[in-house]
Design goal:
The complex is a heterodimer. Chain A is an alpha+beta fold. Helix content of chain A is 28%, strand content 24%. Chain A contains 12 helices and 19 strands. In chain A, the strands form 3 sheets. A 10-stranded mixed β-sheet of chain A has the order 11-12-8-7-1-2-3-6-4-19, sandwiched between helices. In chain A, strands 5, 14, 15, 16, 17 and 18 form a 6-stranded antiparallel β-sheet that branches. A 3-stranded antiparallel β-sheet of chain A has the order 9-10-13, with helices on one face. Chain B is of the alpha+beta class. Chain B contains 4 helices and 6 strands. Chain B has a 4-stranded antiparallel β-sheet with strand order 2-3-5-4. Classes of the chains: A alpha+beta, B alpha+beta. The interface between A and B is large, with 54 and 42 residues.
Amino acid sequence: MPENKTVRIANGQGFWGDSILGPIRLVEEGPLDYLTLDYLAEVTMSIMQKLKGRDPSKGYATDFVSLLDRILPTLVEKDIKVVANAGGVNPQACMEAVLEVMRSHGLEGEKVAIVEGDDILDGIDGLMSSGEEFLNMDTGAPLSSVRERVTSANVYLGAFPIAEALATGARIVITGRGTDPGLVLGPMIHEFGWQPGDDDLLAAGTVAGHIVECGAQCTGGNYTDWRSVPDLARVGYPIIEAEADGSFVITKHEATGGAVNIDTVCHQLAYEMGDPAAYLTPDVIADFTSFKIEQDGLDRVRVSGVKGAPATSQYKVSMSYSDGWKSVGELTISGPDALEKARLCAAIVWERLAMDGCEYPEEERLEEYVGAGVCHRGIPEAETDAPPEVILRMGVKGPDKAKVSRFGPELVPLVTSGPPGVTGFAGGRPKAAEIIGFWPSLVTKDKIQTTVSVLTA
Amino acid sequence: MPIVPLSQIAAARSGDKGEGSNVGVLAKSDAAYAFLKEALTREAVAAHMSGINRGAVRRYEADNLRLLNFLLEDSLGGGGSASLLTDAQGKTHGLALLRMELDVPEEILSELES
């Protein structure tokens, strides 16, 4: 392979629920080598375990299969490879579904690979008896306090298994839980032959992955100076032009909307950031204070000189557990005197619930007056006493499902038994929904086995 | 020195970090960054965001990005799916911080206007 080759790696899906137009336009509207797609949030893993429990052929991101049905012929024609964490808690089933779609397009001979090993739900007790404590990273609490209620447990795997899967010649690589930047770093490791211990290179790929992992959030979406961003409807999703020396350019396809400049990229560099000097992944510790960032022509930003340090000996583990119930509902209250009437409505609801034996302590209930200033509470210039109308948003939570469920039916009656001008009720009574708690912890790397499997359509 | 909102000399992005949120403040010029490194203290941010954040505030710097990063440790009403708040992910906390009013040296403002 030529030393000076450039590899184009895009991200077309920033989160579960992102627009399908992102990846479709990425493969159709310009050159590309790799398309990465992120489908997993922490809450997703728990939902997928439930689906798999009911039906062993479920538990992965079905949106991914629908997307492939639309783009597979173009992927093959342009020789674009895909890396997606669409496997959820059932990469095997996801692979079967993808192979089926390949055959339906007459693409026999194409390969699909999966990375497994992240799902440790069935191995928790064994790992604990071998000395893994799974102490809560934030609170230090022992896992025993929630062990019986754990519904999913996944290790955040790194990028090397993805590179191994790409080395099989697979068109599509499907993973379960891994780091988001790993989806991008994996193809770089594969293309450039980077090795464990190449810390500056691995850190560079990690920074690149962080910049693109939320899709259009680095190309002009969610940007402070939003009026300066052209054509957000046709916003281009981000593309990395990666080089073997670790330097890279962030860009987007020509003639797409949005903007790529130092400011839009720095906005995303700051997103969900902790200590910028120590960004921990299973592959490396990346230093986000180390590199140079510069404009490199229209809608092109170059990053170079990224420094990294050796990774730790542990993986991060994310477990989810059942943590009680909540119910939230809302009504719209028109003026005149909208806020005063909304406050009366809230007081009526709490009083009626108390009359029926349901009192909710302050930390288990909420009332918000949307339109009078809820997002920026406590900042005087962001609040008003005289909104022309408000949305009264109320909610309760707690361990007792029956008590939480009792709340919803007392919201609607305000339409006829409260002050005048109460409306906006649609979609049925608010119902109790399960709260999914998260238990962040660590596990010794040596105790986790990752495997790569490949099948041909 | 004129009193102006932080938004005149900086931009921001925010998001969730467990039960808290982070707000990255991006200075619009080198002079604005030098000024904010002194003026935008952990204490000043904690006071301005006290209606939103019940926890401690941590502060980090990245000079190469002209970035001051603040972690608000208890700002999401429990965080994740346990929160009852409209903004359960802290998406709007950056704009909340940009409303903070500061005494900014005239030359920083005039350089940004030119």
